[in-house]
Write a structure and sequence with these properties.
Layout lengths: L3 H4 L7 H7 L2 H13 L5 H17 L4 E5 L11 E3 L1 E4 L3 E4 L3 H5 E5 L15 E6 L6 E3 L2 E10 L8 H21 L8 E15 H4 L3 H6 L24 H16 L4 E6 L5 E6 L2 E2 H21 L2 E4 L13 E9 L12 H20 L1 H7 L3 H6 L12 E2 L2 H12 L1 E3 L4 E3 L23 E3 L4 E3 L9 H23 L4 H16 L11 H10 L7 H4 L6 H9 L5 H54 L5 H29 L7 H29 L10 H6 L2
Parallel strand pairs: 1-8, 15-18
Antiparallel strand pairs: 1-2, 3-4, 5-6, 6-8, 7-8, 9-11, 9-12, 9-13, 9-14, 10-11, 14-19, 16-17, 18-19
Helix pairs in contact: 6-15, 9-10, 11-15, 11-16, 14-16, 15-16, 20-21, 20-22, 21-22
Amino acid sequence: MACVDEIFGINVFNDSVMRQRLPKETYKTLHKTIDEGRRLDPQVASVVANAMKDWALERGATHYTHWFQPLNSVTAEKHDAFITPVDGGRVIQEFSGKELVRGEADASSLPSGGLRSTFEARGYTAWDPTSYAFIKEHVLCVPTAYCSYGGEALDKKTPLLRSMEALNRQAVRILKLFGRMDATRVTPTVGPEQEYFLIEKSLYDRRSDLIFAGRTLFGAPAPKGQELGDHFFGTIKSRVQAFMTELNEELWKVGVLAKTEHNETAPAQHEMAPIHSIVNVACDHNQLTMEIMKKVARRHGLHCLLSEKPFAGVNGSGKHNNWSMSTNTGYNLLEPGDSPHESAQFLLFLTAVIKAVDDYQDLLRASVASAGNDHRLGGCEAPPAVISIFLGDELTEILKSIEAGSIYNGREKTDMTVGVHMLPKFPKDTTDRNRTSPFAFTGNKFEFRSLGSSASISDANVVLNTSVAESLRQFADELENASDFRSALHDLIVRTIHDHKRIIFNGNNYTDEWLKEAEKRGLARLDSAVDALPCYTAEKNIRLFETHKVLSESELRSRRDIGLDSYAKIIAIEANTMIMMTRRQILPAVLRFTGDIAAAARNIRDIGADCASGTELVSSLSATTDQLGFDLRQLESVLKARPSGDDPLADARYMHDIVLPAMSDLRASADKLETLTDRSYWPFPTYDELLFSV
């Protein structure tokens, strides 16, 4: 294995490379653009482009691409060679500032939710200088935003950058009220933990459902699952360790701060966690991580599954989004601090997050909604669909004491005023963790656990950044106009705790009692993606995004419609895959086995022996095969009856309410047949092979 400090960032045009290769004034000007959000000078762009090109050529690059993140949650790239023709039939290698700053991509072939028509193809990519360019397989990748000819955001990055700026504006207003004039910028930070499964590539290639749907649509449980807890944090198998070692090296080369690796709870499941980064960089790095995981796995004869629930009956895979806010001076705004001044500031930012999650719980749920995540949320250590906050007993008691007008010190309560009397120090990890909570405070950050493993982290963080910005905006408006800051601060924190304490729940989120209690509290119950995605265009949510100039109403409608359209298409692909596998694989295999067993039973009877077991097996096989045939015809029928029209919500609702139950019935019959059929006849690898073969 290569020395980490020698390979880390070697394929990244990072700050140290820029410092070496750019003229001092160019470097300073570019940093002002990056650090202060200033407009980029075209002359600076030209100098940077030339230096970037020279560096990339030295590292073996032949092409460049504007690397962007369209609304299908994956990444996109169009490669252009550095060559430019000159007289004499020769070429020179060039890369201009114009080519660095702006590119053009087809905006009609990627999802746009109606923002672009087929005949309106023009779309633009624009350099994001806050995220370093990098080299991937001889291509210089320039991270960019992606928008339409009319300026609408067609990607995941543009609203993320806008939301970061919205949060920065409002958080700086609050800090000035506390006299923190040194803090001129506030940036949200994220550390996204990535869960995944590794299976044999040869077995993957024999499963049409994994190829087309990314998850198993059929499969009876293996005799052993995760019951013994022997896989979680267990010794990593040599072959998996070899994959992880190469994965780390490839990630480190492109600057991804891969830190932690371990076996997860389910068999064949694993996790990689990076060190926290600025949220747009973390988003870029997570997209890179998923891509590189798949490529490295193939080199080891493995396949990396990023589906939220690839196997029924064992844990699914999530992406834990550890979110916080930091100043340009390096101070974490969710760190409680040691002084009354710091504690009051912490409480204000803490209650801003609590208020944001309560006010926009529907949006947070919508931001993690997908067909895949519907199978995961609500069990096997994944949080439920109902959004709530876990603070832990100690911090919850502190907030209760503040609301009641007394201070909590673990022993007695005395009268208090926020910011005057010393709050008890709240060190990290004085309370237990709650793995059933969707949104948990973990010492100096919040862990949003509801994200699906294949999703971009952008959507969730756009909502988090913008909703917290709105809380801070309301707080700043009130406090800036207060005649007595301390008194107003105290009243604001007490009132916010009182108004939004319903969202705080420290218990077991899996129980039926909690779901009843959540309903009693008035919390949003959005069980499926079809229930959640329309929340994007609720009036209050449109107002939120337009107030902070993060997303317009048309951009929000496009995201809602793309989500619903994607949901319906995924279910249709899965249903058609099930029909194909049943007709072409399962039915022929079972009929062949049934015929062979029936013939064997007849041969035994012909020699005068009893064969009750054979007769019974043939009977069970025949009855279950008849049921399979019925369920197959039902699925084909409801799929054929799918309403036509241009209403994505109606289409998604039909697929959820009618097609999914028919798919479930067909699976139940097929899985029962798997348990009755000789392994040598069954047409594709089973769960015990898939989960335990690596």
